[in-house]
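From: lab user (bench 3)
To: helpdesk
Subject: output format question, protein + FE3-S4 cluster

Hello, I'm new to running complex predictions and I'm not sure whether the block I got back is the full result or only part of it. Here's what I submitted:
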Amino acid sequence: MSIYINNENKENILKKITQIDVSAKTPTDETERQYYFMAKARKHVQALSEELGRTPTCCVTTFGCQMNARDSEKLVGILEVVGYEIVDTEKADFVIFNTCTVRDNANQRVYGRLGELKSLKKKNPAMKIALCGCMMQEPSVVEKIKTSYRFVDLIFGTHNIFKFAELLNATFEQKRVVIDIWKDTDQIVEDLPIERKYPFKSGTNIMFGCNNFCSYCIVPYVRGRERSRKPEDIVAEIKDLVADGVVEIMLLGQNVNSYGKNLETPMSFAELLQEIEKIEGLERIRFMTSHPKDLSDELIEVMAKSKKICKHLHLPLQSGSSRILKIMNRRYTKEQYLELAAKIRKAIPDIALTTDIIVGFPGETYEDVLETIDVIKQVKYDNAFTFIYSKRTGTPAAAMENQVPEYVVKKHFDMVLNTVQEISREQVKRYEGEIQDVLVEELNEHEEGFVTGRLSNNTLVHFKGEPGLIGKIVKVKLNKCQGFYYMGEQV
Ligand code: SAH
Ligand code: SF4
Ligand code: F3S
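Helpdesk reply: Thanks, we reran it on our side. This is the complete output you should expect:
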């Protein structure tokens, strides 16, 4: 389980750390070992603080998905414990980029921002720069950084993130760049401190890695093989979160529907959900992502009966063409997907379905795109994230010869996007005039005196409200749908 930092236990964590004898031998138990390095790093940060005459600042920037964001919370937890002040600006004494490599534009953003860091470091020579996350699992990236971005102090990957305290400490004790990348791991290290971004909602990893090897996707190469956390660790962690004010939990995994298959005592995802449902005080359960090939009838049944599982399912389609799906190695056909979507709608009529679509996969023709458009029209998604295919070195699709020319992809992309927008506008609107529960998440960015929250089905709602409502579930009348969100009023 994880230890969430709050005012109460922060003191306990710090007490534990100040009691550690850093002149003793390094502990062998992995968790103890990392606490030992937190104690050591804390001394270095204290020394730095005296040198600077102020608390050193630190900024963690997340480039990727929810799992990447969750990893950032783990980094922040440790940074806080060792004595950094967490800030939002990259004009800080320590900047960490937690990178993503799912599409090339994610990589390009990192290189661009690294250029900016270089000039910041010139002004603040004591500044430390670290890179971690999925991009660092690619040897060619690490080579490029070693030769062209020599001002970087620390590089580590996704498999050894639990070693962050140790690596951070090494940046203080070693003059040269610290590089530690693992190819894979089956280790899951529990009980390290985590800082949460929101007080009222949180993500929780239920599994790591992916075994699916969709032919376009780099995730299995950079995140390693699938491994599930023990249900008792997950449940204990959520109970702890709830005791600390969390009302909504998002269960995270690349393919949650295959949860538990490799546990000593196997357990299905539907069974895990039922255990989580029992947690008193927890109001909403979400999860991400579901692979259509593994979505069981048992899960649909559990979702239909549940009072806490949100009325939203993200079910990535990728393509509506059975021919392309086969080459993508998705292991379902257009017909199977449509059947599944129909079954879900029948069991849970008020569910919102959302999806991911790739346009421009090698060999994709106009006819294939029409198939995708047909699925969008039949399934009626509330939202669909549409991506242009990005060639990822090392994946089977990258070696395919029939890559689609850019101008064709662009045309197809616009066709798909237009259909998605047309359909989802109609879909989202279907609750206009109704009263629904909204979990208030934040102050409205654009209009003073307004707050923003989410329906169970994940649609955003803006309405007049006090900051005190944040984190509460309130009844809101959905007055007017404005495309992808509602304007409402609290009732
Ligand atoms: N595990 C999740 C997806 C994780 S990646 C799942 O299978 O649903 C998130 C999305 O990025 C994918 O659903 C896919 O639509 C998109 N994606 C992955 N690789 C891509 C690539 N090479 N080019 C374009 N989009 C890609
Ligand atoms: Fe990538 Fe497919 Fe795994 Fe999702 S299921 S992470 S798309 S390989
Ligand atoms: Fe990106 Fe890694 Fe997530 S590649 S999408 S950050 S798992």
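A quick orientation on your result: DSSP finds 14 helices and 21 strands in the chain. Let us know if anything else is unclear.
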